[in-house]
Amino acid sequence: MTTTSAAATGVAGGTERVIGYSRAINEALAEEMRRDERVWMMGQDIGRLGGVFGLTRGLLDEFGPLRVRDTAINETFIVGGAAGAALAGTIPVVELQFADFLFTAADEIFHKLAKWRYMHGGQFTMPVVVRLPSGVVGGAGAEHSQSLETIAMHVAGLKVAVPATPSDAKGLLKAAIRDPDPVLFFEHKGLYRVKGPVPESDEHVVPFGSARVARPGNDLTVVATGLMVDRAVAAAEQLAPHGIDVEVIDPRTLVPLDIDTIVASVERTHRLMVVHEASRTAGFGAEIATQVQERAFFALDAPVWRVCGTDTPLPQDPELEQACIPSTDEIVAAARALAAI
Amino acid sequence: MTTTSAAATGVAGGTERVIGYSRAINEALAEEMRRDERVWMMGQDIGRLGGVFGLTRGLLDEFGPLRVRDTAINETFIVGGAAGAALAGTIPVVELQFADFLFTAADEIFHKLAKWRYMHGGQFTMPVVVRLPSGVVGGAGAEHSQSLETIAMHVAGLKVAVPATPSDAKGLLKAAIRDPDPVLFFEHKGLYRVKGPVPESDEHVVPFGSARVARPGNDLTVVATGLMVDRAVAAAEQLAPHGIDVEVIDPRTLVPLDIDTIVASVERTHRLMVVHEASRTAGFGAEIATQVQERAFFALDAPVWRVCGTDTPLPQDPELEQACIPSTDEIVAAARALAAI
Amino acid sequence: MTNDPGPDREQVQREVYRKVVTIRFAELRIREHVEKEGFGGFWHPGIGQEGLQVGAVSAMQDDDYLYYAHRGLGYAFAKGMPLEPLFGDLLGRANGSTRGKGGGTVHFADASRHVLGQGGTLGSNFVMGAGTAAASQLLRDGRVTVVFFGDGASGRGTWHEAALQASVWKLPVVWICENNGWALSARFTEQSPTEHVADRAPAYGMPGVVVDGQDAMAVHDATAEAIDRARRGEGPTLIEAKTLRIRGHYEGDRQPYRDDPVLGDEIPNDPVHRLGESIPDDVRRGIDAEARSQVEQAFGAALAAPRADRSVIFEDVWA
Amino acid sequence: MTNDPGPDREQVQREVYRKVVTIRFAELRIREHVEKEGFGGFWHPGIGQEGLQVGAVSAMQDDDYLYYAHRGLGYAFAKGMPLEPLFGDLLGRANGSTRGKGGGTVHFADASRHVLGQGGTLGSNFVMGAGTAAASQLLRDGRVTVVFFGDGASGRGTWHEAALQASVWKLPVVWICENNGWALSARFTEQSPTEHVADRAPAYGMPGVVVDGQDAMAVHDATAEAIDRARRGEGPTLIEAKTLRIRGHYEGDRQPYRDDPVLGDEIPNDPVHRLGESIPDDVRRGIDAEARSQVEQAFGAALAAPRADRSVIFEDVWA
Ligand SMILES: Cc1ncc(C[n+]2csc(CCOP(=O)(O)OP(=O)(O)O)c2C)c(N)n1
Ligand SMILES: Cc1ncc(C[n+]2csc(CCOP(=O)(O)OP(=O)(O)O)c2C)c(N)n1
Ligand SMILES: [Mg+2]
Ligand SMILES: [Mg+2]
Questions:
Q1: CATH class for domain D7-301?
Q2: Does ipTM surpass 0.90 in this model?
Q3: What is the CATH number of domain A212-340?
Q4: A144 in active site
Q5: Which ligand is in closest contact with the Cα of B78?
Q6: Nearest ligand to the C-alpha atom of residue C184
Q7: Residue ranges of the Dehydrogenase E1 component domain (chains C, D) (predicted)?
Q8: Most confident of A13-22, A322-331, D88-97
Q9: Is the pTM of this model over 0.80?
Q10: What does the pLDDT look like over D157-177, one tens digit per residue?
């Protein structure tokens, strides 16, 4: 355990430790289950195995088989059952093994979770968290690698988290579990092993709808999420010596979206680029671009650009897969060109 | 049967009749099934009943129960089965009773239809059409009224049609059936009874990726689809006497998208507004807005605006429902304000 | 309201009769309204099926959970919801339980009476219901969840996923299939490889029971037994109540597809008559009069209520 | 290659042996590669299950359609796909059948041999397969579709939707469940309310057959019978082949969850030995040597092949 300065980590005061993104998620689950015994989990292989990505290790031992339940291969039950269990006063945190599998429970996610409260006149709350291991991870193929958060952003009724650091993974997951609304929690599989400082406190809760400035800058605003945040920051560091001072903003949640922080930045930098791993067309980059030009059109000196995943399915081959999502080099090149407009 | 001038209808030459949007769809199905005996249909209640909206009336009698098959309530089979049937050399045209039900077959739509060809190295084609009665219709509620075409636009591998007139409904459906790729065909339920001129010819095929200028104008470009096209044109007529000459463009297909026609228009009018029934946030309006500012930023005199469905589920009450989607009045008001910037 | 211990059988039957006849009057009143005034949405009449709905729900305890199906109001009324909010929902009134959000006939809810609602996509109730039962198991609250569905909905894959898991976990849930022989234009006999939906129960290691759905008390008894079993921790039961769809799929459906004698107004084996037989005439007439006036009054009140205000559109998206 | 008419049984068995032993060598070669060189993707070893895969597929005609499962290469090789493109897929080589698109062990295809592929989401094969069979019914092409799946996948709702429809329509499809007792870390006995997956067949009005999956010829015979039935227009059959998962879920899985004796390298009732018994030693040794060198040569060729070029990324999205 080390104590780092607030400036270095962006976290105000307190004791911190450097832990992995996976560990941060595991701790959030354990702490919230200790805090509130209505919190429980279900999913495939989360118990005895501790999850395909090891995120739930140790939880079966601590909380027992009624609170850490291994299901059969039945995604509609995992999500729809969670919805039903929420109506009966519990707080289910469920895992789909891959975010892509939200399509195998889409009626349950986009109808039951998103709309039940509304359709039934607000008589119920729907405190469900769906954990969704997301993004490319090295050869998992077209149906196990997608970034589908935009779809969740389009359908009203779902909150959407896209943590990029261990600290945010933990703090946002704790916020998600405490939230009375359904949350789709997109964990990036490529970040599971990344380490970073996380506040020690049990009350490290990161509020939804508050963006994080990952790197301050003055010449160009880059909005990035998930795996792209580090690449954008790396690109910024490469650009700095060339006199291009990039501000990198990580919105952390897409619903609610902290557009104010983004607009304020663009009003200073006059240029915006959105970087995301999800396919380009009709991805959330378009929404951010559109909102910014709606609100700050006359502050923009250049069009808003996007650096995004290809409009293709993802090939299985790990090298081809990387070629389908933005690299640091691509971000550097695009940022240079945009800054030159 | 009447012969109308090409100028009045936007259709080049030939004999035309005025028929309903439903009838146009029914004719397209019948003609394509006559033309190619590999074409067949399945769905709930499409045979004996002729479809919940009557779109398939008479087809069972003409083509028999093996080519017009009533299924049980099994959307994953309807879509996934169509995918499998396409691999075996047939051309399935399937109906989901409401577009919203694509969520009950989402794995089949967004994975099997969209990616099978790609994942298997291009060895197969996937000539499937999924007909999706879409949009508000007067009291069908949150899970029977949505406009979900944006989601299909985001996931690569699916073509997306959104016909707004009887002529386009027929011509695009014929094109969809002839297309070797999977097509999601969003029919607007609120247009089923609308009539319009449709060319007589069996070869009235409207190519995908070619927008239609529904009303030419010089001061402001409005892009609208489906039920919104008529409202946008009505708004344009109201604005004309006030010296605001609106061009209304109906892209007709979202994938592929004829962005060139839109950009060319904006380069003339210098202002763009997108009108859609789908929820605003991360709707396809954002994509069009973003592409236009990417390509014609310096031609824009004002931000691109959107007039869209609310970011809420749709209430069942028909009056409340109408309040959730753009009205002609709202389009008029927004266009006036945008023109004044 | 379980079978035992509780009020004696005669009282149960009288109460079931009262509720069934009330819903019957409600059915007739709604049909009249839809025919005369039109209707925003779809009204799926449940006339003729009220007996099984009320019979089954009458076997539930007050704090047991209910997911109903789309065919009428019998389920919710039997669970204690007053008529006025139900009619209010139907008519899109501000006094409806969903204030114009759910409405149609499709959605109403009453959290205090554990009426949890219904999914608009058939079969979503299966997984929701199993999940509610899993919560009861976790909380050890002793509650049972009852899920209604039609013969058509039984084909949805969610059934398979929910039923397997419910059986393996021995969840306290009771599945009640209203088999009225039709799913819109699809005959059950043409859509099922087995004679009964209940024939599928062994695949899930659960008891399957076929019961005459026109016999409200038989449904009551079968449900009571299944509920007891569930409450004892022995897991789910599948009950199939055989009934008939008297009218079209929705009011206004002309049923061009229907090749059995279209039933129209005749209700074979009418549960109202069957339940009424053993009730003394004067008592029955008193109940009927009371039910009729209750319906008239509630329908009038709903009609007189204001429509929901547009401001509700933006309410209840988020908690 | 149906049972009758066709080559005599001894020849069939010898051919099955040849394929099984070839796949066994392939399994060992791949394991060696994954352990030494690592692997981009997941390799789900099928070692020990080759017998049932090859046995079943050997009962298919050349133009019958195949949807395979994720456990090894036995299915595709038995259907006639050469080893080189299969290894190429595995290694992400340009000579793979999917040129880096599907790869892993998961996806390969051969349109000319009617190897149609596999969905990455378990259970999607059910609905795809039923649909392919519906096309055959429409085209009257006399083909049968065979769909493989695991005991775990049997819980997906797509099974229910596909199986009901296939039965009612009497589609020419044969379902083959490889029950190896595990779905990743989930024991079948803890996830199923019935002893056998095949116990669910009566719910779908179709025959359910349990067969020893280590006995390749028994699986062959059961499949041949089911295929004949399907081809005669009598509808689907559910065959459950009992087998064992010898290794982890994927190569590298340390199986912390596994409380039965982890099998490792011992293959009880090894199909290779069983099939080999009746083949004269010298013949068998000849087959083995040939198989081994075929594997070595194909693996070498795949290793030597170039990786797929980046340009393929944008190919095959559209026709
Ligand atoms: C997933 C899904 N598919 C289709 C529909 C459309 N639909 C509504 S009711 C109905 C028929 C239902 O039949 P059944 O379950 O037997 O109930 P019944 O109407 O006979 O009471 C259909 C097809 C739907 N609501 N949801
Ligand atoms: C819909 C879906 N859920 C979960 C998974 C992840 N997954 C892949 S293989 C597997 C276990 C499959 O078990 P089984 O069907 O018995 O096949 P086996 O691996 O034993 O051959 C799981 C859970 C998936 N691919 N698809
Ligand atoms: Mg029915
Ligand atoms: Mg298995």
A1: alpha beta
A2: yes
A3: 3.40.50.920
A4: yes
A5: 1
A6: 1
A7: 19-302
A8: A322-331
A9: yes
A10: 999 999 999 999 999 999 999
